[in-house]
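Chapter review: from sequence to fold.
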Amino acid sequence: MFNISEVEKGDSDLTWLVSELDAFQSELYPTESNHCLDFSAVSDEQLRCVIVRDEGNAPAGCGALLFHEDGSAEIKRVYIRPEYRGRKLGQKIVSAIEGIASEKKSRLLQLETGIHQQPAITLYRRCGYEICDAFTPYKADPLSVFMRKELP
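The token string follows.
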């Protein structure tokens, strides 16, 4: 059994998961194609974070939602630790993030992921996201895949 909960951006387990994600991505992409969000660079009002924990309360994965001034929001930092993959935790994270977006009346969700992360792309497609052009603040990057979804 897994549970998902919202946490503060400074949560120590979240920091640990994000560090693990950074290490994973640094092996896949050069620095200029690594679009990692530094949580300390955004206000608490701009960011909402979630963690999935296993039955022993160990952190299994995370995700975040960054709100933009235009009313859209961006999915950031979705990560599942390798030993927990294949258990539909990514869908739980995306669903929780979409719920937060709906609460805040954000109707457009966007994200950037990398071409070497095919399981992530598959996850987002299953969740209804479609490939789109680069959006602000990004520029087109041959190593990036940009996706979007309009919420009802």
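Two observations follow directly from the output. The helical segments are 12-28, 89-103, 118-126. The beta strands are 3-7, 47-53, 59-67, 73-80, 108-114, 130-132, 144-150.
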